[in-house]
Amino acid sequence: MSPENGKILPENDAADLNFEATELTLGLPGKSRVTSDGGAKLGNKRGFFETVDLNFGDKDCGQSQIDVQEAANSPVSNDEHRVQVEGWPPVRGFRKNAMTSCKYVKVAVDGAPYLRKVDLEMYDSYQQLLSSLEQMFSCFTIRNYLNEKKIIDHMNGIEYVPTYEDKDGDWMLVGDVPWQMFVESCKRLRLKKSSEAIGLAPRTPPKCASTTERSLN
Amino acid sequence: MLWVSRKTIKMNYFPDEVLEHMFFFITSHKDRNSVSLVCKSWYKIERYSRQRVFIGNCYSISPERLIARFPGLKSLTLKGKPHFADFNLVPHEWGGFVYPWIEALAKSRIGLEELRLKRMVVSDESLEFLSKSFVNFKSLVLVSCEGFTTDGLAAIAANCRFLRELDLQENEVDDQRGHWLSCFPESCTSLVTLNFACLKGEINLGALERLVVRSPNLKSLRLNHAVPLDTLQKLLMQAPQLVDLGTGSYVDDPSSEAYSKLKSVFQRCKSIRSLSGFFEVAPHCMSAIYPICRNLTFLNLSYAPGLHGNELTKLIQHCRKLQRLWILDCIGDKGLGVVASTCKELQELRVFPSDLGPGNAAMTEEGLVLLSEGCPKLNSLLYFCQQMTNAALITVAKNCPNFIRFRLCILDPVKCDPVTNQPLDEGFGAIVHFCKGLKRLSLTGLLTDQVFNYIGMYAEQLEMLSIAFAGDSDEGMLYVLNGCKKLRKLEIMKSRFGNAALLEDMGKYEAMRSLWMSSCEVTLGGCKTLAEKMPRLSVEIINESEQMEFSHDDRQKVDKMYLYRTLVGHRKDSPAFVCIL
């Protein structure tokens, strides 16, 4: 599992910081978290959580999970964060797949204050999806540059790269995998400002360009 | 349990045939096992007369020994991967292959008629081998299995001439676009159960209709999403005797002819007691079901996210005899209130999350409390929610002392009581204290060692315990191991239990089926010690990380450990990433 990125941690007074910073949470940032002044027991628990969470990022464990320290330092770009822990929540894979396959996915755009939802089942190809996004965020047009799908906002000249979060919690560039595979594994979409899309999973190398092109149709 | 007074009957003169006849009425596995321990002659008679065997861990015994002991075996149930495999904690190639079992049974003279598998790897070759090896084979039930395609199903359909039951529950099946349904020969008229709801691909609708027409004994039919509403209507016309129905895609225009035919055919289906499916659902078509609702005892809407609010509650208000309900959390707390006031016979409730995203879980403690107030017969619960309070759990425990299974999943796994900011120790403590028959418990929320103290003290009937993100120290795990005398399965993830707890009472594990510990504090050294001292346990270390090398540092914490008792030593089919100590 790849490390989670971009977890926002609320700044609180120092007494609470450690507890909240290291508390495993699936909640939205800024949501009122339970403070740890509920008695001596919880005070003791701070040490436990710190240790436990540091272990999660511990390379000795041989499995990468949330690395809280890293998350604390990375810039916030998402307005929604999820802690991905292997084996959590305890929902059968079969059910998870059944749920995601016919669901709407949220579409976020860097810098836009609102999200939209699209039903991926409504489209047959990347082209259709991106056209729809173009209509939704009406100031954008789609430009194909080499084999990459980019979305340009002509108003401010910013280039966006469509990305998506897959079932494993990894952020991927849209267009790499065959359309059906994308539909099955996409959990949500994000149009990232081009400069911030660096560091995502690499695209297929140029010599496979023809394969990529075919798969995009 | 059969008690024979020594004063009145002398065992020596008790004919075997009489004993055998008596044993025929003893069907529970536990009782059968007890009977076999009474004396040698009872062991012998029991062994020859045993027809059904349940093996909870396929690696605890070998097929050869099974066959040697029970030559009259007709029905075998096997379970493979540990429970946490359901949540992707066990790699696919870990094991649990059914092929060696089928091979061994085929070689023997066992007249296998029924095979029930859970969490096993089943290849097409296995299915084909199975279908050709046992003339009287009647029943195949696969639950959460994987490794096969519709080609394997085609072999079963084609070759099992007396097939009564083909029941596929939540398996991962590759669709080969073959026409497996067409492989049932015209001469096959014996089907009683046909469940292919989990198949993802298209279905030959004509073949399905013809099959149903020639299956007069069909009682249970569960369709997959590819079967549309108008086919459902045609099938029901041919099979009004159904007791258990799983719809396919339940979408149509309410003004269509198919829908109005469906409405009238539902009125003729007086026997349906169990209803599921609804993979796609048009809420305005639900009223067709109302005539069936009044007799339903089981309703599964957990794959129908399209049903909310009023449609959902209206439907439930028709289901006064419901005993088991599986639902999504779209129902909300208020919806559970409707369940509580309508379904007075309710025994089992499962509320699944409809959205795994953060902060989206819809249920809170309020729904559960409402439910407990209206449904005192509740004995089995699976509840995904956003939060829980101690007060609510205490109320629920007092209202529903009959719980046998209690599984609570707060999606934020370490969330404390939002009202008091306390851990949920007291709440779960009340559950184990008041629910004296509790056999299965899953805990979440902020939990300290204290909750395990309560569990060890009060949960006398507990057989299975699932722990995640809980406890402070080894004391917690020790409370459980020392206190729960009937514990069979213990599975722990991400909790602070280490070697001291693991090694304190090693003999305990021979009285249990298995122990799973992942992301805890046990080290390689601790596991090695255990493996050395307990030769009748198999201690497996599962290491999936990039470095395929197993570190030899005994202080290294172990990622995933799975141990189980076994009579046949270490298994020979483990993959490279599993190290058996």
From TrEMBL, chain A:
GO terms for biological process: auxin-activated signaling pathway; regulation of DNA-templated transcription. Residues 102-194 form the PB1 domain. Signal peptide: none annotated. Its main location: nucleus. InterPro entries: AUX/IAA_dom, AUX_IAA, PB1-like. Coiled coil: none annotated. GO terms for cellular component: nucleus. Keywords: Auxin signaling pathway, Nucleus, Repressor, Transcription, Transcription regulation. It is found in: Nucleus. Homodimers and heterodimers. Belongs to the Aux/IAA family. Aux/IAA proteins are short-lived transcriptional factors that function as repressors of early auxin response genes at low auxin concentrations. This is Auxin-responsive protein. The gene is LOC111278559.
TrEMBL record, chain B:
One of its GO terms (molecular function) is auxin binding. Pathway: Protein modification; protein ubiquitination. GO terms for biological process: auxin-activated signaling pathway; pollen maturation; SCF-dependent proteasomal ubiquitin-dependent protein catabolic process. One of its GO terms (cellular component) is SCF ubiquitin ligase complex. It comes from the Eukaryota. The keyword Nucleus applies. InterPro entries: COI1_F-box (IPR041567), F-box_dom (IPR001810), Leu-rich_rpt (IPR001611), Leu-rich_rpt_Cys-con_subtyp (IPR006553), LRR_dom_sf (IPR032675), Transp_inhibit (IPR041101). Keywords: Auxin signaling pathway, Developmental protein, Nucleus, Ubl conjugation pathway. Signal peptide: none annotated. Residues 14-55 form the F-box domain. This is Protein AUXIN SIGNALING F-BOX 2-like. It comes from Durio zibethinus.
